[in-house]
Every structure is written in C-alpha cells, then in structure tokens.
Amino acid sequence: MKKIKIIANPSSGREGAVEIINKLLVPFASKGTSILLNFTQEAGDARKFAATDDGEDCIISMGGDGTVNEVVSGLYDAKRDTPLAIYPAGTVNDFAESLGIPKDPYDFYTMVVYGKKSAVDIGLCGDSAFINVCAVGAFSEIGYSVPEEAKSAVGRLAYYAEGFRMFRERDFLKSGFDVHIDCDGEIIDTKAMIVMVSNSNSVGGFSKISPKADVKDGLLELAVIEEMSMTKVFELFRTIGLGKHIDHDHFIYRHGKKITLRADKPMHVDIDGEKGPCLPQTIQVVPGAVQLITK
Question: Which position among 44, 72, 114, 178 has the lowest Cβ density within 10 Å, counted as fewest Cβ atoms?
C-alpha cells in the first residue's frame, strides 16, 4: 500500500488516538507507506473524510462504533470501494470485537498489510446507514446519553452507570411499547421492551446476542425482548450469559432482508450508538456494500 488515510476521533477511548497513531507510524513508514491524517472535530467530519477520494489505497477508521458508522456512511454515500480497516479505539467497539479485530497496534498493522479483504453487508434504516445495529426501546439511548468525558475517563463503566441510573429513575417494567413488525412478510405484533436489528453478533457488549449473525450472508438479525416480569428479566439475562436466550419464551429471534417497525408512540431509533430518526422505519440490508480488511 502506497497511501493510507486514517480517520480518527481524537477523544475516543481511554488511550488517545495520537498515542495509537504514533505506534502505527513506524511499521507503515518502514514499508514506505505515506499516511494522511484526518482528525474529526464535530459530527459529520468522518463521513465527509471517507466520502472524499484522496487517492488512498486504504482507509483506517480509528474510534468507536459512532466513528465507524460515519466512515461507512461516507463510503456508501460516495459509492466508494476503497478497503476499510477498523481500529477499535472507542469505549464500545461491538462491530470490531465481533470480528476479532486486534487492538495491539503491530498486530493491527500486520492485519492491514497481510489480511484479507471481504465484502461485508451494511444496513439501511430509512436513509441512514449502519454497520452494526439499530435499536429502539429500553436503554437504547444509553450510547448518546453518556457524556464524552465520562466515556474517556472510565470507559465501558460509564455505560453501565448510565444504565443503572435509567433503571433507578424509570419504572423499567412499564417501559414496554406496542410494536408492529413486518420481517420479510412475517407479521409480529407484541409488547416489547427493546427491538434490535443487527448485522453482527455483538450488541451492547453482549457478544452472542444474535448468535447466528454473519456479516456476509445478506441478512439482518431481528431480536425482540418482550415485556415481562422482573423475575423473567433476570432469567433472560442469565440465559444470555449461557448463550441459550433464543429459546426463552419472551425472546423473539428472526432473520430478514427487509424489516419494518411501527410503534404505538413516538420513538427514536438508535443507530450504532447515535440518535437516529423516529419510527416508523423500514430497515433493509445492503449486501456486500463495504470492502473490509480482516485477519
């Protein structure tokens, strides 16, 4: 590779992007690779940088799921097929972790230079692209409720603290909503606590929430947690830890190419940890939309 573009969120994670980049510069420089650094300053920057063709042979996204989302959106908007490598530098890196992307800078460098390129799917929620998940319901707004300084200071603990605060301040058992779902023609009407449509198997730190997910199968995963008693909630979370939750009587699991969601009240959709559009929305897969570098 002659030229690599790094799109980095300097405030992501507990180890700053500059420190990580410094560790990557030496091995890339030894190969004669030139590096174009683009640091984001505000929302939309990563999307713009990714959409712009600067003659790079590869783009490295350095940040969390939000940064990856913007980079993927930029590539999709501009219909670019430039290979993408994801360095998991954010507080939450569900998509990168689902694919086993290395965090060690030298191992990551090795993956970029010698890894394989695969065409992976993305999802569209209305006009908004996502690489990992869109969700609506209980706790789905945690990602954009946690202050950036808290994410940087205490990492994933900030998310757990925000979830606990929401749990205390709201009547969790009354957070359900009536939802109408059309999943490739199958109609599901239920009272849900949360509805997730995911591309990978990792959502919110749960590594196997959608155990049959494959980012190259041309399908999205629908997971619905129905309203239930607190006893059943604890039972469900125990089964998630054991990987047996898809058999729980209040967990609905399907695959689909096109999924429409409607609710009985106004609700925002969380898209890769960021606040997205309101329901109703149609969510569909775009097969092989992004060229991704993996091990």
Answer: 114
- Give the whole-angstrom CA distance, residue 109 versus residue 103: 10
- List of residues 6+ apart from 101 with CB closer than 8 A: 86, 87, 88, 93, 108, 111, 294, 295
What is the distance between the alpha carbons of residues 122 and 107, in angstroms, rounded to a whole number? 26
Tokens representing 136? 């609506």
Q: H or E stretch including 73?
A: helix 65-77
DSSP element (H, E) containing 48: helix 45-51
* d(C-alpha 158, C-alpha 12), whole Å: 13
> Token pair for residue 121?
């799917």
DSSP code at position 247: G
In the chain, the largest separation of any two C-alpha atoms, in whole Å, equals 60
Please return the burial class of 41, using the count of CB atoms within 10 Å of its CB with bins 0-12, 13-18 and 19+. Answer: exposed
192, 196, 171: which is closest to 180 by C-alpha?
Answer: 192
Structure pTM? 0.84
What are the tens digits of pLDDT across the range 156-186? 434 344 444 444 445 555 668 999 999 999 9
Structure tokens at 183: 């999943």
Tens-digit pLDDT profile for residues 15-71 = 567 888 889 999 999 989 999 999 999 999 999 999 999 999 999 999 888 899 999
Task: Name residues whose C-beta falls within 8 Å of residue 134's C-beta, 6 or more positions apart in sequence.
Answer: 123, 125, 128, 196, 197, 269, 270, 271, 272, 276, 281, 283
Nearest to 139 by CA among 70, 89, 209: 209
Report how far residue 261's alpha carbon sits from residue 110's, in angstroms, rounded to the nearest whole number: 42
